[in-house]
Amino acid sequence: MTDISAAMIIECVRKVLNRDIAEDTDIFSAGVDSLAVLRCRALLKQQTGVKVPGHVFFGGRTPAGIAELIGAENAGR
After folding, report:
1. Is the dihedral of CA 62, 65, 69, 71 positive or negative?
2. Could you report the per-residue pLDDT of 5-20, keeping only the tens digit for each?
3. pTM
4. Is residue 77 within 8 Å of 1, Cβ to Cβ?
């Protein structure tokens, strides 16, 4: 299984919003909305083959937090 890093989340947000953010930036404060989450999920699936559940974006809120939740969800698979 491919690990999804905070850097990959940052790159998705950069592509979707045309904005740079840091690992600890709240993506929703930076302008991410539910449509941007869908676009990021599609990009991650295309790049990695991993289907990322939407709730990790809302639960993690920062690229580091999102990557951590994705890792926790995929542990043991």
Report:
1. positive
2. 999 999 999 999 999 9
3. 0.89
4. yes
